[in-house]
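Project channel, design review

CF: Before we commit to the Heyndrickxia sporothermodurans constructs, I'd like one complete example in the thread so the newer folks can see what an input/output pair looks like. Taking RNA-binding protein KhpA.
RD: sounds good, go ahead.
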Amino acid sequence: MQDLIETIVKPLVDSPEDVQVFVAEEDSHITYKLSVNKQDIGKVIGKKGRVAKAIRTVVYAAAGSKHHKKIYLEIIE
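CF: and here is what came back for RNA-binding protein KhpA:
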C-alpha cells in the first residue's frame, strides 16, 4: 500500500525525494501517514481537498479488498 501511495503522490509534487509514508497498525485499523515537503502540501491537498479525497478513494478501494481493517490516510507536515 505504501508503494501505491508513493506512486500516486510523487508525480504531483516538486520534491518527490521528500515523499515518505509511515504505517501505524492497530488492532482495528491501519493508518498511513503521508509526509511531503511543506511547499508541496497544497498540491497534495488540492482545491477544497479534491486531490486528497481522490487519493484516499483509490487507497481505500485498493486496501479494502486486501485488509479486513479500517484504513486511514493522513497527510502530515
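RD: helpful, thanks. The CA atoms of residues 45 and 53 lie 8 Å apart.
CF: Strands lie at 20-25, 29-35, 70-76.
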